[in-house]
Amino acid sequence: MDDHELVADHFAGVKVRWVASKIANPTQPGLYHPAQPERRFYRLTFHKRHRQLITDEYLPHVVRVGKEIRTRNRQRKLFTNSPNYKWPTYKHTMWSHINFEHPATFETMGLDPAKKKDIIDDLVTFTESREFYSRIGKAWKRGYLLYGPPGTGKSTMIAAMANLLNYDVYDLELTAVKDNTELRKLLIETTSKSIIVIEDIDCSLDLTGQRKKNQKWLSDEERDGGVGGGSSRVTLSGLLNFIDGLWSACGGERLIVFTTNYVEKLDPALIRRGRMDKHIELSYCSFEAFKVLARNYLKLDEEEGDDHPMFATVERLMKEMKITPADVAENLMPKSPLDDADTCLSRLILAMEEAKEAAEMEREVAAARKLVEEKEKKVVGMVNGSPENGVAPH
Ligand SMILES: Nc1ncnc2c1ncn2[C@@H]1O[C@H](COP(=O)(O)OP(=O)(O)OP(=O)(O)O)[C@@H](O)[C@H]1O
């Protein structure tokens, strides 16, 4: 607001007026008195019969909405503990950061609409549940496990989550963490309204549940599944403490997201509900997901987007073979200024047909190999005279 500008507002049927004012500082700057800044303030006027409403409800409302606007407008950050990122920071912290500017949104994600809605609803409900969490005595946090083959959109979804909720992202590189103590320190430095991400959790730690028992020469931490190879000594139990302890140690809303290509490799303790509350499978591209991508990449309008003549072929091929959203996206990407929707769709169809042929060929080769192996077994059985494996020699 400019000086002396008047702004009217309405709250619960009551009209109030705000005026921006300032008071110049009366003290003259001198040798021992540096110039003081003027004092700025807002004058709020309303009828005195509304005093109760204004002090009890309106002012808290203004503060809350102000905070929301500030959060919405703030520049979000991507923090990382990776030793490769070394930007100078104002004060030394364990995280370095850059501005988070990933453009992914749920609208642009190729995902089945029902699944998309379910995830968005879950996230929005979480952010609006501060009182609920406090009432049931749980820390205000939620864990998501994103799993599926490479190129199905796990990282993209994390960016879409951050953009939807206006959260910062802490990309935790577990292999760069020295030990459990350092893990805890990193955790304590994270702020509210953030997503803590551990990508490819199966590669970061020995989390298979196959603890290295009977190896007496190993330290407790190494036996417990500490990261091997490097200098990190983060263990599975350290990570479990991280997830559980974090929430009790830090207030404010936080999400923790793990991604993996091999969900079956993970220790069940790590992904049980309560730690990873929502498990989301990201899989090969469905026809519904393809339509979202086609609409975005080819700039088809709503009507054309569901109706392009080549879509029927894509739909048929999608039933006969598997293709990741990443491969669909790559094929739909124009490769020259002359590429139009038909060119991009033809390229995608060709790629799908080639991939289907290659998969069929692979299946045939595998079947032939199996046949040869069975024949070899039979011959060996005949030579050894085993009646189970083949015909016994006369
Ligand atoms: N569901 C999707 N919707 C839109 N784009 C996608 C989707 N999945 C993948 N992509 C595109 O493919 C690229 C790779 O996707 P992404 O990195 O999110 O996959 P990922 O599942 O995290 O892979 P990885 O397991 O290898 O880390 C992205 O840059 C994005 O453009």
UniProtKB/TrEMBL annotation:
<feature type="coiled-coil region">
    <location>
        <begin position="349"/>
        <end position="378"/>
    </location>
</feature>
<dbReference type="InterPro" id="IPR027417">
    <property type="entry name" value="P-loop_NTPase"/>
</dbReference>
<keyword id="KW-0175">Coiled coil</keyword>
<dbReference type="InterPro" id="IPR003960">
    <property type="entry name" value="ATPase_AAA_CS"/>
</dbReference>
<dbReference type="InterPro" id="IPR003593">
    <property type="entry name" value="AAA+_ATPase"/>
</dbReference>
<dbReference type="GO" id="GO:0006950">
    <property type="term" value="P:response to stress"/>
</dbReference>
<dbReference type="InterPro" id="IPR050747">
    <property type="entry name" value="Mitochondrial_chaperone_BCS1"/>
</dbReference>
<dbReference type="InterPro" id="IPR058017">
    <property type="entry name" value="At3g28540-like_C"/>
</dbReference>
<keyword id="KW-0067">ATP-binding</keyword>
<dbReference type="GO" id="GO:0016887">
    <property type="term" value="F:ATP hydrolysis activity"/>
</dbReference>
<dbReference type="GO" id="GO:0005524">
    <property type="term" value="F:ATP binding"/>
</dbReference>
<protein>
    <recommendedName>
        <fullName>AAA+ ATPase domain-containing protein</fullName>
    </recommendedName>
</protein>
<dbReference type="Pfam" id="PF25568">
    <property type="entry name" value="AAA_lid_At3g28540"/>
</dbReference>
<dbReference type="Pfam" id="PF00004">
    <property type="entry name" value="AAA"/>
</dbReference>
<keyword id="KW-0460">Magnesium</keyword>
<dbReference type="InterPro" id="IPR003959">
    <property type="entry name" value="ATPase_AAA_core"/>
</dbReference>
<feature type="domain" description="AAA+ ATPase">
    <location>
        <begin position="140"/>
        <end position="286"/>
    </location>
</feature>
<keyword id="KW-0547">Nucleotide-binding</keyword>
<comment type="similarity">
    <text>Belongs to the AAA ATPase family. BCS1 subfamily.</text>
</comment>
